[in-house]
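> agent: user asked for a holo structure of the chain below bound to magnesium ion. Plan: (1) validate sequence alphabet, (2) canonicalize SMILES, (3) run complex prediction with ligand conditioning, (4) return tokens. Step 1... ok. Step 2... ok. Step 3 dispatched.
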Amino acid sequence: MNAVQTHDRQTIPGIKDTLAVSSGKGGVGKSTLAANLAVALASRGLRIGLLDADIYGPNIPGMLGLDGRPEIAGDGGQIQPLASHGLKAISMGLLLDAGTPVIWRGPMLAKMIHQFLFNVAWGELDLLLLDLPPGTGDVQITLTQTAPLTGALIVTTPSAIALADVRRGVEMFRQTEVPIIGLVENMSSFTCNKCGHDEAIFGTGGEQTARQLDIPFLGNIPLDPLARSQADTGTPVVQAHPEAASSQALAQLAGAIGTHYLTA
Ligand SMILES: Nc1ncnc2c1ncn2[C@@H]1O[C@H](COP(=O)(O)OP(=O)(O)O)[C@@H](O)[C@H]1O
Ligand SMILES: [Mg+2]
């Protein structure tokens, strides 16, 4: 029996597909991957939107170097997303002064997510990426109930603790009938740039977990200081350093996702 009702889902006019970048655990790289994938997919010519669904901890403005307030325009008072890096983005972080915390209960959170989905002037998009907060809480429930999520990408690190959380996330999407397009393992290994030694700092196990859960394994993204520093400075690594090991893995992932949606 489904724990969550899914029959109230609406479609968003003009948006072909919606992909949630999700994980059970925080800090595994969802926002980093969402920002890099959005930029990489936009550079392939897809019309991309990026919705920062992490209302309490919005990181997309920082990772994309966005500033400025979205304007409210038109008869319906639509929120205008910010255009940058060839894509459109919206985030709670753009509506607040830096450093202001959001202290809301679930119903307010749900309203904001609804606004971001249905009251933003997204225009025509091939794909709307959603950067989710970790876990299986209010935002996930709202999204899986009201949003026409056409896919979920699960991000994990290879540590046993993160992989245990993957199972919960997979179960949530299964119960809410959101197709899981695959699992990506982030921070897979670190190659020392002085001696070339490869170290699996967080262990291994993403691919095996994907197999056990019967979901596609979409690849490994290495732990790369450039991915971190570029996230901190607001130009995603795929754009700033396309030759970097992390960028190449991210570009490959974007290629697989782009193909998935273009041929779907
Ligand atoms: N492949 C990677 N290599 C190095 N640092 C990474 C990588 N992926 C993410 N990070 C860094 O790890 C931290 C957490 O990533 P973040 O995307 O904020 O995770 P989440 O959104 O899942 O909480 C950030 O400082 C980010 O720059
Ligand atoms: Mg995040």
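> agent: step 4 complete. Summary for user: The chain has one domain: 17-263. Residues 30-31, 54, 59, 131 surround magnesium ion (ligand 2) (CB under 6 Å).
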